[in-house]
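Hi Y.,

Following your request, here is the sequence exactly as I used it, all 224 residues.
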Amino acid sequence: MPSAVVLLSGGLDSSTALAVARDAGFTCYALTVRYGQLHEVELAAARRVATALGAADHRVVEVDLSQLASSALTTKGIAVPKDRSLAENGAPGDVPSTYVPARNTLLLSLALAWAETLGAKDLFVGVNVLDASGYPDCRPEFVRAFEALAQVATRSGGFTVHAPLIELTKAGIIALGTRLGVDYAITHSCYDPIGDAACGRCDACALRKKGFAEAGVPDPTRYA
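Below is the corresponding structure, written out as tokens. Let me know if you'd prefer a different format.
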């Protein structure tokens, strides 16, 4: 079986991407990055998901972006947007304060380093452009550009960056993951959790609620 490195945050999208990679016949090596995010709850979710979906190995590495990249997810005092309408969420030109500068570039670079060490040629990332929050590093252009970079930044090249969810709605992602056996009750998406519970008011919670409703799947999330 070929090997693949899968970026795993513990959220809905990355968990589904791991399930897709497993279903495609890859031996999956899950990589979670503690990049300076304020909340540890997503790291615990990533560990649960990696175990539940049978990752061959799960590494948690630390690269503290909070010292360089200002964001509501890494910097105390920057507010997480709350109670925005779905029309506002991801509107053209809208890049909310929860965007972490260069995060996906860093995460994919770390995944590439591990893949080259393992002899794996495939990377999986759960980025999504339709029901997303307007992040520039979730676009197809970004994925294609990083894949091109991987060919010249490594000893051998030959890498493929898979973004299997990039053109799916959240409802489509949930339907796919449900079919592949993802237990969404153990995932975490909230930008501003209250203890272990999701706030229910941030952009991530709004999109998650919308996705389950449109997919016709009961939402297992525990909201505060």
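Strands lie at 3-7, 27-34, 57-62, 122-124, 160-162.

Thanks again,
Q.
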